[in-house]
Amino acid sequence: MTDSHEGLFAAPPSRRLSKSKYLSGLQCLKRLYLEIHRPELATPPDASTQAILDMGTEIGRLAQQYFPGGVLVKAGFRQREAAVAETAALVHNPSIPSIFEGAFEHDGVLVRVDILERVRTSEDAPLSWRLIEVKSSTRVKDVHLDDLSVQSHVVQGVGLTLDATCLMHIDTGYLYQGGEVDLRALFAVKNMSESVTLRRGQVYEQLPVMKSALLKSDPPDIEPDQHCHVPYECPFWAHCTKRKPSRWIYHLPGKKEVVNQLVQQGITTIDDIPNGTRLSDAQRRVKDNVEWMSSELGKVLRSVTYPVHHLDIETVMLALPRFPLTRPYQPIPVQWSNHIELESGELSHQEFLHNEASEPRKQWAQALIESLGEKGSIVVYSAYEEAIIRQLAETFPEFKSAFKSILKRLWDLLPVIREHYYHPDFNGSYSIKSVLPAVVPSLGYDDLAIQAGGQAAAEYYRMVFVETDWVEQAALRESLLRYCARDTLAMVELRRALAKKNKQVGP
Ligand code: SF4
Q1: How far apart are CA 27 and CA 36, in angstroms?
Q2: For ligand 1, what atom is nearest to the CA of residue 34?
Q3: CA of 8: how far to CAs of 87, 89, 202, 283, 370, in Å?
Q4: CA geometry: angle at 386 spanning 312 and 417, to 5°?
Q5: Closest CA to 186 of 114, 134, 117
Q6: What is the distance in A from the centroid of ligand 1 to the CA of 233?
Q7: Which atom of ligand 1 is nearest to the CA of 237?
Q8: CA angle, corner 432, sides to 340 and 298, nearest 5?
Q9: Ligand 1 center to residue 235 CA distance, Å?
Q10: How many alpha carbons lie under 13 Å from residue 142 in its C-beta half-sphere?
Q11: Which atom of ligand 1 is nearest to the CA of 31?
């Protein structure tokens, strides 16, 4: 801490920012303006975004255990004055080694610092602090440096001396052995002081720009484009793009450089792209906007062998590993669905869902191996199933030979569709969520409570590790089963519909 505490915990200015608002302002001034003045226009976070936020909170709490004797500022995020006063008292108490969620305000910015560790190299050395931001991510990202730079601006602005500015993140190299989690191995702490110092100039430059934008009666006139997705998906995307044409140039899939070049030429819709422009196959099909099928489609579809299994696997990825011999964020399989089609067309369904917080993989694997038997193609949609099965074969040698045979029977429908069929309603996306309603209009995901893989993983986490009400748990279980079963039924119906379309146009 400096000799003089002048300005420490100063009076609030009229328009206050937070570190997250500062980051929003760096991404887009309009986003910042809308967050402050028109928050109701934002699309609320979906279940998977919320689950990521919840996991971040859990990791934040765990990181605090890394600093024994640390004290949490109890005043909540809305109790600004109380939090600032509580923090000041802890700063002035030399027996407190670390402060968690300390609140500081300077230059119109209020920050809550994850961890502020008191550093004293010797008895007579001046007091300084180590500022540590905790992230549940697996590496340092550019946006983290902006986050740290605004925090260090505020903390130094109130008169504290920073010895180091660090980022603490998850180290995916950590292999959990069971028992107590080794926090020193789970977390990597990186000193980012140099990079943060280089960014302080940006904070001085940008804060007045943000404050002045916020004083205007209207939001800044900023057009949506690539910047709306980096570093975060902007929650105002639906609002800002609601009047854009359905064939808006930013709906062109693939490399964004192509879109940028077209925009620079003044092109605003996909239909205006000049002939002769170099486009990828996927982009060309979106531009042509007509149904297309290759002459090979029928032959490829007939290459399956019966009984045809249709397999979908769902996983959960835990920042904090809970099962021995797993790493942070390693996908852990917890569910599968298998629709089995006989040559006669008869269809049956088998499924598995591990619905408790114990190690799921052995039971999962045994049931799957039994369901897939030894005969027939195994239709999947993407290479994900193969990756999960390979991983399990490595971890559990007892399943290696069964999984080896299963891997040889995998038949991926995604590249088949990508190479042999296109429908304008795909809008350039080959995700099963886009492909299914276009090819099989009677079947989609709209009637389901869970409609995407990320949401399924989030809801699984909630069912097993968070929810205590058994009625809610049962409802989640039902939703998860229905979602996974829909994915495999979708593959059955896609194969059938494509075969029918192919028959209609000839051999
Ligand atoms: S959608 Fe894009 S333009 Fe609109 S507020 Fe968000 S970042 Fe800004």
Answers
A1: 15
A2: 5
A3: 11, 12, 22, 56, 67
A4: 65
A5: 134
A6: 9
A7: 1
A8: 65
A9: 8
A10: 5
A11: 5
Homologous superfamily of the 297-504 domain (CATH): Ribonuclease H-like superfamily/Ribonuclease H (3.30.420.10)
- Can you spell out the DSSP letters for 247-280? TBGGG--S-HHHHHHHHHTT--BGGGSPTT----
Instruction: Answer yes or no: is the C-beta of 228 below 6 A from any ligand 1 atom.
Output: yes
Q: How far is CA 11 from the centre of its chain?
A: 38
Residue nearest to atom 3 of ligand 1 (CA): 224
Query: How far, in Å, from the CA of 413 to the mean position of ligand 1?
Result: 36
Residue 76, both tokens: 């909540």
- Residue 73 in tokens: 């500022």
Cβ of 236 less than 6 Å from ligand 1: yes
Nearest ligand 1 atom, CA 219: 5
**Of all protein residues, whose CA lies closest to atom 5 belonging to ligand 1?**
31
DSSP 3-state of 39: helix
Q: How far is CA 220 from the centre of its chain?
A: 28
Return phi, psi of residue 85, to 5°. -65, -40
Domain ranges of the chain: 17-215, 262-289, 297-504
In sequence order, the 6+-apart residues with CB closer than 8 A to the CB of 364 are 333, 334, 335, 336, 352, 354
- Ligand 1 pocket test, pick from 236, 239, 250 with the greatest ligand atom count within 8 Å of Cβ, gives 236
- Pair type for strands 98-106 and 109-119: antiparallel
Q: Which of 118, 116, 152 is nearest to 134 (CA)?
A: 116
- Number of Cβ within a 10 Å radius of residue 152: 25
Q: pLDDT tens for the chain, 507 residues: list them.
A: 333 333 344 433 346 899 999 999 999 999 999 999 999 999 988 767 777 777 788 899 999 999 999 999 999 888 999 999 999 999 999 999 999 999 999 999 999 999 999 997 667 777 899 999 999 999 999 999 999 999 999 999 999 999 999 999 999 999 999 999 999 999 999 999 999 999 999 999 999 999 999 999 999 999 999 899 999 999 999 999 999 998 999 988 888 888 989 999 999 999 999 988 999 888 898 999 999 999 999 999 999 999 999 999 999 999 999 999 899 999 999 999 999 999 999 999 999 999 899 999 999 999 999 999 999 999 999 999 999 999 999 999 999 999 999 999 999 999 999 999 999 999 888 999 999 999 999 998 999 999 888 889 989 988 998 878 899 999 999 999 999 999 999 999 999 999 999 988 765
Yes or no: is domain 17-215 CATH 3.90.320? yes
- Tokens 């946006």 belong to 143
